[in-house]
Amino acid sequence: MTATSQLLGISNAIVDILAHVDQQLIDDLGIVPGSMNLIDEQRAREIYAMMGPATEMSGGSVANTVAGFANLGGDAAYIGRVRDDQFGEVFNHDMRSLGVDVRLAPSTDGAPTARSHILITGDGQRTMNTYLGACTELSVTDITAETIGTPKAVLLEGYVWDCPEGPMLAQKAIDIASERGAAIALSLSDSFCVQRHRDAFEGFVRDGVDIVLADEDEIVALLQTKSFDETLAALDAYDNLFAITRSEKGSVIKHGDQLHTQPATRVDKVVDSTGAGDAYSAGFLFGWVNDYTLADCARLGTWCATTVIQQLGARIERGVLDGFARN
Amino acid sequence: MTATSQLLGISNAIVDILAHVDQQLIDDLGIVPGSMNLIDEQRAREIYAMMGPATEMSGGSVANTVAGFANLGGDAAYIGRVRDDQFGEVFNHDMRSLGVDVRLAPSTDGAPTARSHILITGDGQRTMNTYLGACTELSVTDITAETIGTPKAVLLEGYVWDCPEGPMLAQKAIDIASERGAAIALSLSDSFCVQRHRDAFEGFVRDGVDIVLADEDEIVALLQTKSFDETLAALDAYDNLFAITRSEKGSVIKHGDQLHTQPATRVDKVVDSTGAGDAYSAGFLFGWVNDYTLADCARLGTWCATTVIQQLGARIERGVLDGFARN
Q1: Domains of chain B, earliest start first
Q2: What is the ipTM for the molecules in this complex?
Q3: Which residues on B lie below 8 Å from A98 (Cβ)?
Q4: Which of A171, A242, B36, B139 has its CA 20 to 30 A from that of A215?
Q5: Dihedral, CA atoms, A37, A38, A41, A47, nearest 10 degrees?
Q6: pLDDT value at position B154?
Q7: Residue B115 in 3-state DSSP?
Q8: CA-CA distance, B225 to A292, in Å (whole number)?
Q9: Which residue does chain A place closest to B19, by CA atoms?
Q10: Bridge partners of B4?
Q11: How far off is chain B from A48, nearest CA to CA, in Å?
């Protein structure tokens, strides 16, 4: 017997450590404002020691999407590796409390649960410094017929490729899931991640991936195009379903000949833009697994993203569907 | 050589685990809305399993006051016990990042760092369920001439009496600190705590304590009076300095013949009332160690409390003094 779910996420399980900081700290650390940086444990200690009082909460890009999908009422499952430490307990608790079926037990040895030190400057920009810890131990042996189950869609994130066995376990997950008729979705994570793994992503998108979730920077990095028009033209060479978010320019859905443009919803005040893309993916995929039209998938993605940027925190909460109506 | 500080706090070092919940959960758990309950590890696991996704941050009543005092620019030190686990690291990091001199090293064995499961209902009320863990191991041997140093004031909280060696270590701290000329302040924590330890607190207030920080419920529980007028009359029998907060009725300072009434500041919207009393104490004590008049101490306490209820989170942040002017 294998576990069923509509959506299975496979990603880096991360606890966020958030603090407001002065721009000076970003400068002193020599990091690019707004970037996501991979750091080792030594650097993590260094940055943490320089940060002010912080707040901790579960994070991770695709983990946010899976949590949002569950909060929309979807049946979700998750594969990601944490250690049996307090942050690991926090991460798994938060997922389980939403009804997400957490498929892996925490590691009893090895590196501690991953943490991302998120430095928030006065302009609301977030600079992430991620120590992958236990995530890097996610292994090919964690991906089995049993842990995959029989989902309608599997969602992988580009960041998984930053783990030593990431490319191999992603391929194995795709093989098992595809054989069982699941669709494969890939979130491109961030443009630097795309640069790190461009050839691998390109190969996966050409062969294996059904749905590509990306923002404009990421898709441009993948296709090495120079403008968005050029990007759209380049997509003609692919038969995947693309959902591309463009911040205040809305989003574009492309699938073969079909092209749908979804405008962004104007909001009075952006409280916190974190998680907008992850929330969009949650809404889009929730629509997709429930056989919404692509236009309605895009509308629900936009609805979720609009909700999340008007609240503190990266995960959409329960009740987000209240007020949403399909066309 | 001993470490100097203006204020030394001795209290239960706690990490808060906060989640929004339905009123139904409070009812199902059979707890009094708005109360602080002491729970064991088994009950802590039970409650955590029933809570939704949560946010973690450093807490603890007097720890909040010490953090606020440091954020006002005061020179602060802290004695409280955490374990060498991730929550312990979070707690000590948050204190140190404010410049607080953390006097004890984390325990290398024993119970995990304390956590309070704070259930926030739709009406903004917070119901606390505290597993004291490592706090209960704070010991008489932790209180030495070296760890006390030479502060201008020592602040204890009533909750310390909930720990097995609490009464003894509090007495030892008072003895060492008094001999060195420090003033002793006691925060009464909550009215249920006062009921648990009334005789001990009464004895300490009569002999040893210089400054009593309390809200109306707590002072009424201590003096077993029936009205606030009766309470004020009863205070004539004490020569301590009392700072009594009364929510929207403001605060009252009483010291022998001196009586000062400080009105509350009207605010448009209370975002989160948590930590109002702790913030008041931070402002009041910052004024006191800096030789403000009692009226100005009360004004700064009110200023800090007014600030903290208009933000999310229980600790006042740096810059809170901007705009405050003494009379």
Answers
A1: 4-13+59-110+135-308 (3.40.1190.20)
A2: 0.92
A3: 52-53
A4: A171
A5: 0
A6: 98
A7: strand
A8: 66
A9: A94
A10: B150
A11: 8
